[in-house]
Write a structure and sequence with these properties.
It contains 8 helices and 2 strands; from the N terminus they run ααββαααααα. By secondary structure, it is mostly helical. The chain has one domain: Four Helix Bundle (Hemerythrin (Met), subunit A). A two-stranded antiparallel sheet has the order 1-2. A hairpin with a 2-residue loop joins β1 and β2. It is globular and about 45 Å long. It starts with a helix and ends with a helix.
């Protein structure tokens, strides 16, 4: 994929697949543990945080700032922090959080240029990777990784 429109459409399709599963879950199913102590609700909040991460990265880099944190090597610590921050969320709050972060990401993508997204040399912070690589890992790749957790034990 080499255009902003194609990227947004690709992410939207992957997100639609995710939301179809999430929206079909009852609150009781959202409260079931699926990854050690993590419930489906926790997984949804986790996905939302990573969508927000991509939005934060895009917004910061486009504004000439470095993003708030570099992820490499700290993923487990970040995931644990996010888990604890959202532990008391209700299933509905987790759904709303994820939806809001996804909407924020779409807005950031729409505001980005083709160069911002696809030029590997555009942002030195990205260390030679085009921004699209971060976005794909935080969205479509991540959704696929967790769909099994969200579908687990469904009839």
């Amino acid at each position: 994929m080499d255009s902003k429109g194609a990227l947004i459409a690709f992410v939207a399709t992957a997100h639609d697949d995710l939301r179809d599963v999430v929206d079909a879950l009852t609150d009781a199913e959202m409260a079931e543990a699926v990854m050690d102590d993590w419930t489906r609700k926790d997984v949804v909040a986790h996905i939302g945080w990573w969508e927000g991460h991509s939005a934060d990265v895009i917004e910061a880099l486009r504004a000439g700032r470095e993003p708030h944190e570099r992820v490499s090597g700290a993923i487990d610590e970040i995931n644990e922090r996010v888990y604890r921050e959202h532990l008391a969320d209700t299933p509905d709050a987790a759904r709303r959080f994820e939806a809001a972060e996804y909407a924020r990401l779409v807005g950031a993508l729409e505001g980005a240029s083709e160069e911002d997204l696809f030029d590997a040399a555009r942002f030195p912070w990205a260390e030679g990777e085009p921004l699209v690589a971060t976005i794909r890992v935080d969205t479509s790749v991540h959704y696929e990784e967790h769909l099994e957790n969200l579908r687990a034990a469904r009839g």
